[in-house]
């Protein structure tokens, strides 16, 4: 059933809002996936704050006009699932994992930082650590000098207590 003009305009407006928030986008062919597989894919994407939508290519082209993602227009051929996210690594990981599990999901390409990327670049992007992992490593790196300093300061009274305990044990013997 085709959409009416007002519904099409609403779809374009919704897509433009999602694209404005996104850092990266990906499109993939989904021909042959079952409803259950697409539902699982969408559920996993929603957990990772990734917007996934099956949309007509003409409506997506209209939504992309004037954005940094307009370079993906040559990729928009055939039935595609479109995804956009603030976290490019999470987006790439979801598509890479699901394309491994379901061979019918074929990643066509995407856009990252205003540049079109192919499926191989998306696979490489998925191998990067997630944002949370990078923040944890950064925090650990920032805490290392402070915690080392605290351990050094704590060692002086600890050594004094061990010496006193050794003297007490020596006198008791």
Automatic annotation (TrEMBL):
Pfam families in alphabetical order: Ribosomal_L10 (PF00466)
PROSITE patterns registered for this protein in UniProt: RIBOSOMAL_L10
Annotated InterPro entries: Ribosomal_uL10 (IPR001790), Ribosomal_uL10-like_sf (IPR043141), Ribosomal_uL10_bac (IPR022973), Ribosomal_uL10_bac_type (IPR047865), Ribosomal_uL10_CS_bac (IPR002363)
CDD domains with a match to the protein in the record: Ribosomal_L10
Keywords of this entry: Ribonucleoprotein, Ribosomal protein, RNA-binding, rRNA-binding
Coiled-coil positions: none
Similarity annotation: Belongs to the universal ribosomal protein uL10 family.
PANTHER family: 39S RIBOSOMAL PROTEIN L10, MITOCHONDRIAL
Subunit structure: Part of the ribosomal stalk of the 50S ribosomal subunit. The N-terminus interacts with L11 and the large rRNA to form the base of the stalk. The C-terminus forms an elongated spine to which L12 dimers bind in a sequential fashion forming a multimeric L10(L12)X complex.
Name this polypeptide is given: Large ribosomal subunit protein uL10
Organism per entry: Acidithiobacillus marinus
Lineage: Bacteria, Pseudomonadati, Pseudomonadota, Acidithiobacillia, Acidithiobacillales
């Amino acid at each position: 059933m085709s959409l009416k003009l007002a519904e099409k305009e609403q779809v374009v407006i919704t897509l433009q809002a999602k694209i404005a928030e996104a850092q990266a986008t990906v499109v993939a062919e989904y021909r042959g996936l079952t409803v259950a597989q697409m539902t699982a894919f969408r559920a996993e994407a929603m957990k990772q704050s990734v917007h996934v939508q099956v949309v007509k290519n003409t409506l997506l082209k209209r939504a992309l006009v004037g954005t940094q993602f307009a370079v993906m227009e040559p990729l928009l051929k055939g039935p595609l699932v479109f995804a956009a996210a603030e976290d490019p690594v999470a987006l790439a990981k979801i598509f890479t994992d699901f394309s491994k599990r379901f061979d019918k999901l074929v990643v066509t390409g995407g856009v990252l930082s205003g540049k079109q990327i192919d499926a191989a670049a998306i696979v490489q992007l998925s191998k990067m650590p997630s944002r949370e992992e990078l923040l944890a490593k950064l925090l650990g790196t920032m805490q290392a000098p402070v915690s080392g300093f605290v351990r050094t300061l704590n060692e002086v009274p600890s050594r004094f207590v061990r010496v006193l305990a050794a003297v007490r044990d020596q006198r008791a013997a």
